[in-house]
Specification:
The chain is built from no helices and seven strands. With 110 residues, the protein is mostly beta strands. It has a single domain, classed as Sandwich (Hypothetical Protein Tm1070, Chain: A), CATH 2.60.290. The chain has a four-stranded antiparallel beta sheet with strand order 4-1-6-7, with no helix packed on it. It has a three-stranded antiparallel beta sheet with strand order 3-2-5, with no helix packed on it.
Length: 110
């Protein structure tokens, strides 16, 4: 996540967001672990997504167990106790011409 942004807050704050839809008949207990380029992993960050609901988790707002450092490369591993699909979006607003990237991840069997 970039350390700075342009535009109105909070809509145009540079951020990464995980959209977590839960189409199941059970609440989903989700854990997010971050693997950083310069130190040990951070997490898990825990989120509960209610039955047949969605939750949008802005990584900028994750603070427990610690805030995510800005301007540091990282990757996320997201696990859930029920099947979910994760849509990951990144908004980079460091310049007036914003860039938005989105991708969808499906579960991998291990």
């Amino acid at each position: 996540m970039p350390a700075y942004s342009t535009g109105a807050e909070p809509q145009f704050t540079s951020h990464e967001t995980a959209c977590l839809p839960n189409a199941s008949d059970q609440d989903a207990r989700v854990e997010i672990t971050l693997y950083l380029s310069d130190r040990e992993p951070v997490g898990p960050y825990r989120v509960t997504v209610l039955v047949r609901r969605t939750q949008h988790v802005r990584f900028n707002n994750l603070n427990d167990p610690e805030p995510i450092p800005r301007d540091t490369g990282y990757a996320s591993v997201i696990t859930s106790d029920v099947p979910i699909v994760v849509q990951h979006t990144r908004l980079d607003s460091r310049q007036a011409e914003n860039a938005l990237l989105s991708t969808i991840a499906y579960a991998a069997s291990l």
